[in-house]
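A brief tutorial aside. Many learners find it easier to grasp structure tokens once they have seen a single protein encoded end to end. The record that follows does exactly this for Tyr recombinase domain-containing protein. Read the sequence first, then the structure, and try to relate runs of similar tokens to stretches of the chain.
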Amino acid sequence: MSDRANPAAIDPKCKPRVNPHRTTTSGLSREQAMALQGTADADTGPQAARTAAIVGLLLYTGIRVSELVGADVDQLGHDGGHRVLRFTAKGDDPHLVVLPPPVTRRLDAYLAGRADLAGDRLPVPVGGAGARERRPLVVTDSGRRLDRGAVWRLLRRLAKTAEIPVVISPHVLRHTCATLARDAGARLEDIQDQLGHADARTTRRYDHGGARLDRAPAYTLAGYLS
């Protein structure tokens, strides 16, 4: 087939325009998110604890899969009384996410069972005494750093078991984190900080659906004027 049959191949202006501030990704509902985490928690086998920890990290913090598999154990720590994970985010920017109790419980259970971490004191203050050599936060059976493909396959398997009719991916969980946090009342600017978005318009892509309409200023004004 020649390029003449494909105008976009010779004229960039013919390519479809993509709005960077809109997304067609669909996140999970609250019930689906809980079902996915529940299925992960009920997983069996030698890496069951890892499964629960991975889903918890992706779902509650919204970190990218590249950030998850690229993170190291010595990036865990405390900041102002909060359990945190520090890592290098997209664009080589340093970033930090808070690890809420549902995540720390699962993550601690996973790390406690890691033979390669036996004797380590976890977590340690970031950069503080007791930090040891950099080791991957999530590893394979052989102790090597887990790759993104393994995380994708894990999520697909869990979604199938949970009978969730969504083509699931790590980004779907990032989207889910943002939309459910917004539905729960989190401010857009706080979600922006957690996800590490430089542009607030990127975060607003996740603020859609019925919950956004429920917060329409028209309702607020109607109540004020009634």
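Self-check: Residues 26 and 172 are 7 Å apart (CA to CA). If you spotted this yourself, you are ready for the next section.
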